[in-house]
Design brief:
Largest sheet: 8 strands, mixed
Order of helices and strands: EEHEEEEEHHEEEHHH
Number of domains: 1
Radius of gyration: 33 Å
Helix content: 10-25%
Structural class: alpha+beta
Number of helices: 6
Number of strands: 10
Strand content: 25-35%
């Protein structure tokens, strides 16, 4: 963006005003989230701009918003939102979620996160997934939509955060003009899926039958056969004895 100021000779001199980089935006957002966790009200970077709102986010169904810790160590944050497009033509070029534990959550290809089907099936109802709506690269039209936005990341939640701990997350979007559009949400820590899969794995290990175990044996019931018994030949049958006797009586 070029600003102009008056030079000494009365002309106009262009001055380049640098925009914030994504890294700077993330650091700024992380600081704001820490302030919010301390109970200090925060706004959004775009609040400093006097341009009218073009896109508005409102969190709904607060009780169902959750930060899930998944079995493979990844994290999925689900927030239920109402999106209102106030001015048509806005094109979202990039987006992400930032979290106070230092993670940047991806919004694209969310179906690739571990336990995606279990994650969606565990929601109280099957809402529309709004990730594609925001990141498909098509200008948004006037209107309102409700659904869930899912952010996926790989930094683990702090161990001291127990279930139902409320954490703040921020949705950050960038449009074709380079404007930042953001929304602040809250979610509760939920490790139920991780525990569920941990129990499944435990049962699977307990139900494994050792190789070479007897069919009627219980798992773990492995009797050791003494070596002398293992190499002892079985007794000959009556038929085998009769055959041997007949052969020995034949003249040579």
């Amino acid at each position: 963006m070029l600003d102009f100021c008056m030079a000494e000779n009365g002309g106009e001199m262009p001055i380049q005003r640098s925009r914030h980089t994504k890294t700077e935006d993330r650091e700024y957002s992380a600081r704001l989230l820490r302030l919010q966790d301390m109970g200090i009200p925060i706004g959004c970077a775009s609040d400093l701009q006097h341009e009218p709102d073009r896109l508005r986010f409102e969190q709904i169904d607060h009780a169902f918003a959750a930060a899930y810790e998944l079995p493979l160590g990844d994290i999925a944050v689900c927030v239920f939102v109402r999106i209102t497009v106030i001015r048509s033509g806005i094109l979202i070029l990039d987006g992400e979620m930032t979290a106070p534990w230092g993670d940047v959550l991806d919004l694209s290809h969310i179906e690739n996160c571990s336990c995606y089907e279990d994650l969606v099936a565990g929601l109280p109802f099957r809402p529309p997934i709004l990730n594609d709506y925001l990141t498909r690269g098509i200008p948004l039209r006037l209107g309102r939509r409700e659904g869930v936005i899912i952010g996926h990341g790989w930094k683990p939640l702090p161990a001291e955060w127990h279930d139902d701990t409320v954490v703040a997350v921020r949705l950050m979007l960038w449009d074709q003009r380079g404007n930042e559009i953001c929304g602040n949400f809250e979610a509760r820590v939920d490790r139920s899926l991780k525990r569920k899969y941990g129990l499944r794995q435990g049962r699977g290990l307990a139900q494994r039958v050792p190789i070479f175990a007897r069919e009627d044996a219980q798992p773990g019931d492995q009797n050791v056969v003494p070596l002398d018994d293992a190499i002892k030949e079985p007794p000959a049958s009556d038929e085998r004895d009769a055959t041997d006797n007949a052969r020995s009586s034949e003249p040579s």
